[in-house]
Amino acid sequence: MRNMHRRSFYLRAVSVIIPAHNAAATIARTLASLRPEADVIGEVLLVDDSSSDDTASVAEHAASRCALPLRVIQSNCRDAGGARNLALAQANFPWIYMIDADDLHLDGGLRSLLSRTDMQTRADMVVGAFRRRTDGVDRQIKLPVGYTAASTANASAYIQGHVRSIAVGSALVSRRAIDETRFPTGLAYDEDTLFWAKVLSTARLAVITQPVMTYFVSAERSDDRFTVKPAKRFLEWRQALHGLADCGIAKSALKVREGLVALKIARVHYARGDLDTAARFLAVARAAPKVPSDTWRCMRYQFKLAARRRFSVPRIQLQSA
């Protein structure tokens, strides 16, 4: 009887993966949010990635208070994707749940994701809704709408932004479905999108409408990623993006994603006053295939750029006046 109980637990148990870099201020709260799910968590793999604070010791104390089976993995990746990859290689249980060290799990979310796999027994990935908190304000609850049963179609729609995004922390995926798929490393942005698209290209998907986590975002920090060596970083990301063609995702879909990201970069540089960089990335966005709403956005920013350049007074003229 005891062996049967152990086997039943193992088949439903979850390996929780948390990459952490200098997360001493938030990790206890994140672990506490997982406490109500302790009965389905087989292990918590915290990857302490080059922290210079007390991340590991704070996590160990918090996990002890919450009765969570924590294992700390030390790393020097300095890369969230690389840290997750280390934990994926060491995960022991059939289901994988990833959450960042400054986000919060919502009570009952993990059990709801698991329950969906009981109702849809062939599903090896379940996506839930999530709450997005930007600079302390809850903006919206994102529902995982628009997905179909066809895996390649899901991956293509996801890359093109036609379906709701997946936050790290809003999905449960079987270790079998992940297989050898890993996060791309060394990218400044969008590595999560590339990972999920590759998993979606083969996964049998189910969805739930219940929010399962709160995703914390700093708008300034998010935009900062696009301002350091923008051309170099974009080319590195673009090369990784087009590697998804090996998963059966059409090159036309990848070009759509290229345009979406280029438009985002253009908007950030426009907002920060770097009009030349904004214009270069806007040209990339305009050349990419897109839906009518994105065509209008490109046109709007083209007009805004032209007007700002026309009516702005050069600094050298101001100094000589």
How is this structure best described in words?
This protein is α/β, with parallel strands linked by helices and 321 residues long. The chain is built from 14 helices and nine strands. Strands 1, 2, 3, 4, 5, 6, 7, 8 and 9 form a nine-stranded mixed sheet that branches. Helix 11 runs parallel beside helix 13 (292-311).
Beta fraction: 15-25%
Q: What low-confidence regions span 5 or more consecutive residues with pLDDT below 50? A: 315-321
Distance between the termini: 89 Å
Structural class: alpha/beta
Report the total helices: 14
The secondary-structure element order is: HEHEHEHEEHEEHEHHEHHHHHH
Radius of gyration computed on alpha carbons: 21 Å
Total beta strand runs: 9
Share of residues in helices:
40-55%
- Biggest sheet details: 9 strands, mixed
Q: Which whole number gives the mean pLDDT?
A: 92
What would you say about this model in short?
The protein is α/β, with parallel strands linked by helices and 321 residues long. Helix content is 48%, strand content 19%.
Descriptive tags:
9 strands, 9-stranded mixed β-sheet, 321 residues, globular, alpha/beta
Describe how the helices and strands are arranged.
Elements: H1 2-12, E1 14-20, H2 27-34, E2 41-49, H3 55-66, E3 70-75, H4 80-90, E4 95-98, E5 104-105, H5 109-119, E6 125-134, E7 137-142, H6 151-159, E8 171-174, H7 175-178, H8 191-200, E9 205-217, H9 219-224, H10 230-242, H11 251-271, H12 275-287, H13 292-311, H14 315-320
Parallel strand pairs: 1-2, 1-4, 2-3, 6-9
Antiparallel strand pairs: 4-8, 5-9, 6-7, 6-8
Helix pairs in contact: 2-3, 6-8, 10-11, 11-12, 11-13, 12-13
